[in-house]
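Example complex used in Figure S2.
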Amino acid sequence: MSLLHLDGVGRSVDLPDGSVLPILTGVDLEVAEGEHVAIVGRSGSGKSTLLNILGLLDSPTSGAYRVDGADAGSLSARRRGRMRGQTFGFVFQQFNLLPRRSATENVATPLLYSSGTAFWQRRRLARAALERVGLGHRADALPERLSGGEQQRVAIARSLVRSPRVLLADEPTGSLDVDTGSAVMDLLEEVTTAAGSTLVTITHDLSVAARAQRQYRLDHGLLTPLSPDDLAVVTAHRSAGALA
Amino acid sequence: MSALVGTLLEAWGEVRVHRARVVLSLVGVLLAVFAMTIVTAAGDMGRQAFLESSERSSGRSTTVQVTAGPREGAAAPGQVEAAYAQVVDRYGITWSSTTGYGQVDVRIGQTPVFTQLRVVEADYGVIHRIVPSSGRWLDGSDADRLSPALVVNEEFRTQTGTSGLVPPYALELPGSPSVTATVVGVVDSDPWSPMAFVLPSAPALLPGAGTGYGGTPSLEVWLPPEEVDAFVAELPGALAASGLDGSATPMSDDGVLKVLGYVQWGIRALSLFALGLGALGVLNVGIVTVRQRIREIGVRRALGASSARVFAAIMLESVVATAAAGALGVALAVAVVVNLPLELVTDDLGISEVPRFPVAAALEAFLSATAVGALAGLVPATIAVRSRVIDAIRY
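Predicted assembly (639 residues):
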């Protein structure tokens, strides 16, 4: 059984003039435990909306979405919130670190919503997560004092601190230069592989997508496997990565 | 448990991070709580001072004064006193004292000092809450002394030139024959003329004081509150059995206390109004801030915070902040009141003890501030949970 299962999922919004704007149309997708899947697409293609539906931040207007066999549409708001915190970790393009809180406080934030040992030992766990992403020496730094790459590493540490089964990365390298972006992707792959977590990456960059086991293209709300041209580019990137 | 602690930590964290905003928004609350505490405390202390002063002159609040006299002609010697004793015995009264007046010229040196005598029993000290400034109050054993016991006021000591002596001390009262009285205690100068308390047996021993009370004595009884009405109603009948006409009158005059209570409530209402204005400031800043923090709230939701948790955290921010401001306002008020030279005022009022700071006033102001914080936090908390997670993150 797949961990994430989208079955004919559609998402549309009602516009002020009464018309309906479709964002996603009939999306089918299955993602298995521990898999790395990439979804590429241009700006406005619906990538972020798809990611938000996958992460239970948004709901489809049609179709069905099951997480580990549970129908997300039938979950109460409370259970959705709990499942979101326990199952998913998020890495955003803009990092979305909480301002004026130290790196440790940011990483510990998800543990505020957990219970038991994880709650009471949240600072120790947060520091351990920062060590894992190589930022143990910046544990007390405020986000404003960190570089873009460091901020994204803090965000990755925060997304991993509750040991989620799925990591959803929305343009994780979008705000970084090429070298830093590559380092961040290396880190994401390393930590998710080590934890056995599923990684779903949303990107417009084929070189980032090439790192995944499976790639899809989202265009005007339709999700399709990559075209032969795209696959040729991906293959070239993989070869370049292997040579490097 | 962890959810509650987590919510509190989250709220405190927000207050800490946004302390400049919080401090500015709370100035109004702090000042209102400060004023509220000061006013309530001053009112309570004034009430306590007034009560003490009132009890010294009229007796404790459920004291009843009994007066009696013969229906016709003059009373037989001891007739009224005997009737009073029967009343005290019949009603099983614990605290009672006959009260009468007399006078004596105390001649020390060349100038006679006209001294008012208050002829009372030992219980009078309890009923009127008399605390001697030095020495002691009269007790039952003083009735057996051959040297009459006096409790004098300071003015008596000043005019007789005995201010430097520490009671008990003997006082030679010239006369035929001269008498040695014993001053066993001293009270403050109220009234501002020489005065001495003595037991009923004493006037007969004092030279020039004559015998008796200088009029028919009255009886003061201190009753449990629930017995006052029945006692007042039944007393004329009880005296009639002894062949006397009489009446019983409650001594407490609570009119001033009522006025004081109304004034206190009025000022308290004004303070609450001021607290409400302070809360508007908190509400205003809270609404503006929560709109600025929509994105952050969205991120927290993405990280696992439920909408109930977000609501509680935002509301608690307001509660924690106003509670802190309330505590500070109360602390300031306590510091001010405790350090005021209140003894100057209480001395003028003839009050023996400076009333303590009323804890209830501090608690009331603190709880009011906290409640106001909860109310002011409702609107921002509602705004925070109304936004959809996805919209909040994109905000």
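The longest helix of chain A spans residues 178-195. Residues 93 and 171 of chain A are 5 Å apart (CA to CA).
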